[in-house]
Amino acid sequence: MPVRKLEVNRAPVLTLWGAVVAERLGYDRAAALTLGRAVAGLNAQTKGRRLGVFDEAPRGATERRAGRGPRRRERLVPLLGRSVPAVDTERGLRAAEEGRPVSSASVERYLRGKFGEALPNVRAAMQELAAAYEPAQLEEVAFALYERFRPRIPSGVRGWGAKGVLDLDFVRSLAAE
């Protein structure tokens, strides 16, 4: 029986939704996975700074990371209202951190770890919703849709990464609107 509701925090939901939207916009799955992860990361950074969970990167942090291989020329890819840094690689476009490509395999492992056996059902519900929109329209409404279906954190629950219920029937109902 397919999963209809699951308890999960918002970061993997936004990561997967970003990937599904990116695929609907024409990016291949590997590129889409990295773009989805980057959108979720950018949102987490913004929220974390707003809540005081973390500060701006300390001075010298970029220089310390510089030994991880050659930096590539970045370009910005619009997705879910964000400008995602990305680089062209021999395998295609990938979101970038510090000018280095994100691994699509690591994003897929992350999603499998967070959604488990429900991942195909969650992806299918999100794909159904994304398919209900033409790509140009989807890009305009994608983040607002996420805000409507993202897991609701129960009142009184505090803490970074708190879990809420993701209702796949509700995600699918948005496609019918």
Ends: how far apart? 25 Å
Percent strand: 15-25%
Mean of the pLDDT scores?
86
- Count of strand segments: 6
For the largest beta sheet, what order do the strands appear in spatially? 2-3-4-5
Largest sheet: 4 strands, antiparallel
Contiguous helical run count:
7
Kindly give the count of domains.
1
Radius of gyration, in angstroms, nearest whole number: 17 Å
Find the structural class using helix and strand composition: alpha+beta
The shape, in one word, is globular
**Topology as a string of helices (H) and strands (E):** EHHHEEEEHHHEH
Stretches with pLDDT under 50, minimum 5 residues = 58-67
Task: Describe the secondary-structure layout.
Elements: E1 5-9, H1 10-24, H2 29-51, H3 61-65, E2 75-79, E3 82-89, E4 92-97, E5 100-101, H4 104-115, H5 119-131, H6 135-149, E6 163-167, H7 168-176
Antiparallel strand pairs: 1-6, 2-3, 3-4, 4-5
Write a structural description.
- It contains 7 helices and 6 strands, in the order βαααββββαααβα.
- The longest helix has 23 residues, at 29-51.
- With 177 residues, the protein is an alpha+beta fold.
- Mean pLDDT is 86; it is low at 58-67.
- The chain is 52% helix and 18% strand.
- A hairpin with a 2-residue loop joins strand 2 and strand 3.
- It has one domain.
Q: What's a concise summary of this model?
A:
The chain has 177 residues and is an alpha+beta fold.
